[in-house]
Write a structure and sequence with these properties.
Number of helices: 30
Number of domains: 5
Radius of gyration: 49 Å
Strand content: 15-25%
CATH architecture of the largest domain: 3-Layer(aba) Sandwich
Membrane topology: Multi-pass membrane protein
Keywords: ATP-binding, Membrane, Nucleotide-binding, Transmembrane, Transmembrane helix
Helix content: 40-55%
Largest sheet: 8 strands, mixed
CATH topology of the largest domain: Rossmann fold
CATH class of the largest domain: Alpha Beta
Protein name: ABC transporter domain-containing protein
GO molecular function: ATP binding
Subcellular location: Membrane
Shape: rod-shaped
Length: 948
Amino acid sequence: MSNGDPGVRVPKQQPSVPTFGTQANALLRKNVTYQKRNIASNCCIVSFPIIICLLLFALQKAIDGVFDKAKYRCGCVRMNATEVCGIQFSDGTQAGFCGIPNPPEWPGVMQVPRTAYRANVEDGQFPASQKPATILYTGSNQATAAGLANSLLLSKASNSSDALDQLSNLIPGSPTELQISNIIEPAFLEDDPVYVLRNQSCGGQSPVTLSVDLIGGVPLTKRFECLETQILFRNSSSEINNELYKGFRKADPVGNPEQKINEYVAGYDFRNTDLNNFDVAVWYNQMLVKDTSQSPPGYARVSRPMNLAAQAFLRFVSGPNAELPLWFVKEMPRQSSTLRLDLSALIGPLFYMWVSALLFPVILQTIVYEKQKNLRMMMKMHGLGDRAYWAITYLYFFTLSIVYFTFFVFFGSIINLQFFRLNSYGLQFVFFFIYLNLQVAFGILAATIFANTKTATVCGLLYVFGFGLLGQFFFRFFLEDRKTGEGWIFAMELLPPFSLYRGLYEFGQYAFVGKFQNTKGMKWSNLSDKDNGLKVVFIIQVVEWFLFLGLAWYLDQVVQSGSGVKKHPLFFLGFKYKVAADLAPAKARSLANGAEVDIEMEKPDVAQERSVVENLRERANDSYAIVCDNLKKVYPGTDGNPDKYAVRGLSLAVQRSECFGMLGPNGAGKTTTINMMIGLLTPSSGTAYIQGLDIRTDMDRIYTSMGVCPQHDLLWETLTGEEHLYFYGRLKNLKGSELDSAVESSLKSVNLFNNGVGRKKSGQYSGGMKRRLSVAISLIGNPQVVYMDEPSTGLDPASRSNLWNVVKQAKKDRSIILTTHSMEEAEALCDRLCIFVNGQLQCIGDSKDLKRRYGGNHVLTITTQPEDEAEVVKMVNSFSPNAKIVYGLVGTQKFEIPKSDVDIATVFAEVERAKRTFTIQAWGVADTTLEDVFIKVSREAQADAPLT
């Protein structure tokens, strides 16, 4: 058809289009029923979060039982029949959990290096056991700095009996490692001695053992030793800085004794200090926390070195007798605590991620199943629009997800999992609401990639469990590593499973801290916390939610994913695929291997059918329901092969209340023709008009008045035959008693009503029962145009006869196009027939006309004794010189006798005369059958077929 050709003029009928609500209601009912049929799978899915919650609950109880032991509680003793608990009765493990309303007071202690690590400078070599400690100092005015430095370690004995008072006038120091807090000063509990720092020779003083009462009335006996300390001047602070860090802990003295070790007690820079100005910088030794590798301590011993500097300045200004004592240091009071570990918050994100993402493969599998089985296209061909399909599919899976997660959170809260109970339920609802929408959108988008249900399901499960493990053992390390840039975190969170993990991780962290500190978890106000990434997750998920929906809609249009023909990638800008150039109506030329091949001129009956179609271009005629106007389908050749012509310019007009039969060998193009008319394939050129509507532009409206019985049964195996008919009946606007009556009559017509067969799952049907159900589906709702592609395949003779009666009854008020390989079926049902070979009409007409025009022979069969075969041949040639023998075996011979040579009466007379000469055991004469016509036309067409 040329670009300017307006096309065939057929009055457009206005079929009763089901409303969006009608379509949505039908699909929703079908989906709900489908889920009821899959109750076992649904129970397994619902049980998964229950199992996870119970597992975490059991592990939590086991851990709580371990932490309830005495070693993880504050130490207690019984005094006068009363249990008394406190830090004074605790060992090192228990002490961390004691309540300390009045923390003990401890002397301010200097941090000094152990003997093996002390710097060995300037005053010669000392025995390892006598190596002095060293303090470095500098200042802008060396004389002033020297005066201040000489006053640093001045001390005097105290006459007080109070241990704190005594130690405040001394300068105690200790090499003992620090702890997390200063509730207990480890210098007075460990085996290391407490040193008294002096800037003069100890003169061989022996250690002194003192008994001091410092905590809870428990006396502590401690050994005090004199430690000679050198105070050495350096020219600048940079020299001190370089010397302090030069070789610091460079090697183990035991493993490498000659390696220099360089630790100092402190360093002082008195800068511009004078009588009117006190300006000092202090370097101090920061020790590691005991048994925590490279972690910094919770506090440092800085009070004493700062106090020494301040007291030195006071003595420099006021005289050597001035005092600024540091009586004690003490920790802040604290409440009692118990060791609490919320396992569900600590490792819960991994399990909760698995639970949250488990519905993804379910969504993926369901959508891909309907695409793989062409069920979505089947629904569309019976009137289900894309808007209704996607709206109900989306809302259906989202509703299932909401119910699933509501149950999940409710059950987790009931069994007291702190992940759910401590965090704000409002925040949890918003997070899961956004994520579930994103997951449904992502599932719809991912379904466009897959064509096989098993592949989609496997990939979906790998996605769930694979990304769960990656989140726990890969992504989590990036979240907890402060060196990881925010940009990298943001980039990884663009992947939906990582954004899910980040949200669950944040909830888990807040719940863990809340359980440990006996506080609430995450609240709305916590979204503004510096390290809280949930706000960013919300933004990412909302943006991706709408982005994935848009991409899913776009790909559904341009990728043939079960919704019919695909559109041009730029269809939203008005672009369309270019169609192949039309072939000439009567004669087409095809290039094959560089040579021209002439296609035979159309036969008169085919040319007459084309003229009918051409006349319809000029005059409207509502008696024709189906008009194919020069319909072609060409598959482009690949790898240097020529193009494949599947349909070569089909022109056909089917009247209302007519059953039109298409006969042809396999691969002739019959199914391709039907697939173009029902919207599964796009024509390369030409078009077809159904009820006056163009298949190129009005397919959505055509579907509402069309019924299809496809070549392969497209059924949900878990739905019953009755449920199939109810669903498709609703799509055809049937309701109430009218729908019930139509379903019942349809089941009865195809013999699926008795014995409750209609209420059995279609997966339990035999092949013949499925074909009968497919026929019933194609006829329900009184469609005006019906396509039946080999409807009687697999039926027994009784069922086939019953089906023929159904089709005969149905064609009274509708147009039917039927393909079949049964000549008997074609003659019984079809008002007109065509034989289709190599994509072309070879002949068209009713069966009698075809046999008359293409038969042209009588078939004579005679059985005699083998020795009489020559006499039989002589007899036949006597009255029909043009007769052909087509069969001969052991005395039985079959001849084709041209009707123009002889009439039936002559044949009878000649056979009776021959009986007098030799014995004829049996004989018969018949007219040409439709099967003979089919074989003859097919052979002739294939012999003359073009190379492409």
